Amino acid sequence: MIQVHELHKRYGETVALRGLSFGIGRGEILGLLGPNGAGKTTTLRILTGFMTPDAGRVEFEGRPLAELGRDLRRRTGYLPEANPLTPDLTVRGHLDFTGSLYGLAGARLREARERVVERCGLAGLDRRPARALSKGQRQRLGLAQALLHEPELLFLDEPTAGLDPLLVSDLRDLIRGFGGERTVVLSTHVLSEVEAVCNRVLILDRGRAVAEGSLEELGRSLDGGRRLELRARFPDGPPDWAQAPGVREATPRGEAGDRWLLSVDDDPEAPAVLAAWVQERGGRLYELQPGRAGLEEIFLRVVRGEVGP
Fold first, then answer.
1. DSSP symbol at 223
2. Which of 137, 193, 229, 241 is least surrounded by Cβ atoms within 10 Å, i.e. has the fewest?
3. Do 204 and 30 contact (CB within 8 A), yes or no?
4. pLDDT of 298 over the 70 cut
């Protein structure tokens, strides 16, 4: 749906993007990650047409982004990190104003307003001014504005920042429900949020893409091998995993002392060989299944330069 080619952007002496390239498929929920100053917000501003790059290009379904004009705004929705609301304008006033910008009026506007009010949990708040809304309600209103015109492509910049756990869970459920229905780009510092709702991840660092793919693909790239989740009990306590065939590293999981995340050679026979080794040592094998590194480990190792391009 979107192809980004060699984007460069500089603010004075500060280089925000340096040759950034990636793609976004239709119906994907892409998690955009990176430390502060990695270029995430600059990338969103370019993709939404608010900013032009110094060099490079963005294509939307094969068409240059710069040529789309109003068609781009009609087909995209954007919730910025600092959600701009007018304090004395009501929830309904904000939605009516936003709808007018997209050419919605009369019955079409009423239907669109009712739809997003219900979907974003704003029922009963129509006449409440923005200054009287909680942080979570303001975020929901911003999301309702972004969804009002039924965009195909949705950009969310730190949508759950400052929300309590219950509201975070509700908002994640809402975003997860967009999968396949519309394309979503989610920029966040919350790694658990990406694990919960995204099917692909793009990690930026100093204006470059340093890792891209599904969580499973990124996990496998950490050591060039495979990850296995194993649960077993041994009569004499945990074994010396350094003696196990094909095992490169063993990381304990949980507090029971019977679970491990194993990094093993990329050999299709590795699980069978490992199971036989456990049984030879009198172990009782309960589980042996594919595993992967957590996103926190992936993120830290990629940003530290331990893996990646």
1. T
2. 229
3. no
4. yes
- How far apart, in whole angstroms, are the C-alpha atoms of residue 275 and residue 239? 13
Q: What is the CATH number of the domain that holds 123?
A: 3.40.50.300
Tokens of 17: 């993007």
CB-side neighbour CA atoms (13 Å) of 22 = 25
**Same-domain status, 69 and 213:** yes
φ and ψ at residue 154, rounded to 5 degrees: -125, 130
- Where b means 16+ CB within 10 Å and e means fewer, 81-92 reads eebebeeeebbe
Residue 303 located in a structural domain: no
Integer Cα distance of 286 and 269 in angstroms: 19
State which residues form the domain around 241: 223-291
24: in domain: yes
Contacts (Cβ under 8 Å, ≥6 apart) of 11: none
Do residues 137 and 122 make contact, with C-beta atoms less than 8 angstroms apart? yes
Q: Are 185 and 146 in contact (CB under 8 A)?
A: no
Tens digits of residue pLDDT in 100-150: 999 999 999 999 999 999 988 899 999 999 999 988 889 889 999 999 999
Cα separation, 248 vs 241, whole angstroms: 8
What is the C-alpha to C-alpha distance for residues 129 and 136, in angstroms, rounded to an integer? Answer: 14
Same domain assignment for residues 49 and 123: yes
Q: Cα 107 to chain center, whole Å?
A: 35
